Amino acid sequence: QVQLIETGGGMVQPGGSLTLSCAASGNFPSGSIMGWYRQVPGKQRELVATITSGGIARYADAVEGRFTISRHNGKNTIWLQMDTLRPEDTAVYYCNARRIMSPTYNSWGQGTQVTVSS
Questions:
Q1: How many of the other CB atoms lie within 10 Å of CB of 57?
Q2: Nearest CA to 79 among 17, 14, 23?
Q3: Contacts of 100 (CB under 8 A, 6+ apart)
Q4: DSSP-based three-state secondary structure for 51
């Protein structure tokens, strides 16, 4: 079982920056894809960015060039550096870890609120 703890949410003005972190703990095999998703009330959860254990990153078009995902495999931790934030980035951000090869898992963090407002 994988436990994910997110930190770093908060309120920031448009154009500002925030960094989210997610630490994974528990007894689980390596080789996961970890990432960030976000959700606003009334809408489906959407992909923000993911990163493989080999460091291959993927971004949603809405955040490409503004957000950077990074990973430290030894610490089982990922970060999301968010720059040039916009009001439409306001959402609850969730960390995810999943492994698609057996033994599989798909775990979510509790979420952290990010609010971009003047």
A1: 14
A2: 23
A3: 33
A4: strand
